[in-house]
């Protein structure tokens, strides 16, 4: 991906104006701020450290750490500025760090990102949202556009009310494109994200049941995702899957063009063939594209990215090369080959993505055992029990050799899968599962690792990739 050279994005005066803050201390230097972070471990020379209060810790505990690492400016709350007045005075004196106090650091960060995006109107903004596949689709679009011009993207999945503003603060005036993923898990979050970005193009990957427990229903999810089009004024373009069942609702009343994507709609698409774990051959505009990501779900992501690229006039050769250059992110459609082959798809899980993952591994030809290690599906609210019971009923007919189920919620799936031919075990927590796996896994196995992020199932990878006899991939 092409990137703009690092340079000062914000002067101290700009920070004060955008955040509507008050000065606790001025920075000793005058070079300005080159980066913005809410993680003290990422603070360094030229950085603005935003002290955010989270579920597990409070960034105000790490003000001294960030300043010692070279942070140019600290953004703190008024309440903490009063409570820590002596500490802040000492930090400013020792390190020459600037300090700004605001009513709420998160709101101030969002205000800074909003003002910054307004200051660079030459950048074309592409927003990507949806229940599943948004991070991968963002990466594919970025891989294509980065071949033709400097392109900014969210790092990893910095897509939330915290992550998106941080990503926007890294967009520079000499970027031509900014590909920005937007995620949400509560009502109103999308309003904030869309207002910060004001996208020129916006793509919805699908409407599924991710976070349904926090939003209440799939209809509510669709209503929130539709807000990605809310600030269109007639000049913008939205992209929707051709067979999305909420398509009519999502497109109704949108002030702008709506473009369909998919096998029937994406320009130039002439079919595809699966290469199993090796990815997909895409026939496009008379060429064979070797797309490295596997499965129909990733083909859908690729077709959405192609449609966006065509809308922006990207040459065919660059589209093809961009598609072929894509690599999976950690824990997303990641294939780890070795004595044991692992499909690591453990970044999230909901009924739709679980079904797709199981369909794929069941369809693969394989000479060894096929094993699925399935973690609980979280954030489903009132649908939790029904969703896990439905998964269990589906597992009754699975052709897999063994099923390992993780998490309290998965006990429902175990009970509902009674009668399955596959060997089944359930574990409430990950430690006994890890102990059980070590002697169970053997060379030649194909293992699907799939579950919600909160289970931290990537912790099983050292066991799985060691294989029988300690062989490593």
Walkthrough of the structure:
This protein has 473 residues and is α/β, with parallel strands linked by helices. It has 3 domains: 12-109, MurE/MurF, N-terminal domain (Udp-n-acetylmuramoylalanyl-d-glutamate--2,6- Diaminopimelate Ligase, Chain: A, domain 1, 3-Layer(aba) Sandwich); 120-324, Mur-like, catalytic domain (UDP-N-acetylmuramoyl-L-alanine:D-glutamate ligase), CATH 3.40.1190.10; 334-470, Mur ligase, C-terminal domain (Protein-Tyrosine Phosphatase, Chain A, Alpha-Beta Complex), CATH 3.90.190. The chain has 18 helices and 20 strands. It has helices at residues 12-19, 63-68, 78-83, 85-95, 105-118, 134-145, 163-169, 189-197, 212-215, 218-226, 247-251, 296-311, 316-324, 351-363, 384-395, 410-416, 430-440, 461-466, and strands at 22-25, 35-37, 47-50, 73-77, 98-102, 124-129, 151-153, 177-181, 201-204, 237-241, 257-261, 269-274, 280-284, 287-291, 334-336, 341-345, 370-375, 402-406, 423-427, 446-450. The radius of gyration is 24 Å and the shape is globular. The two termini are 28 Å apart. The model is unreliable at 1-5 and 467-473 (pLDDT under 50).
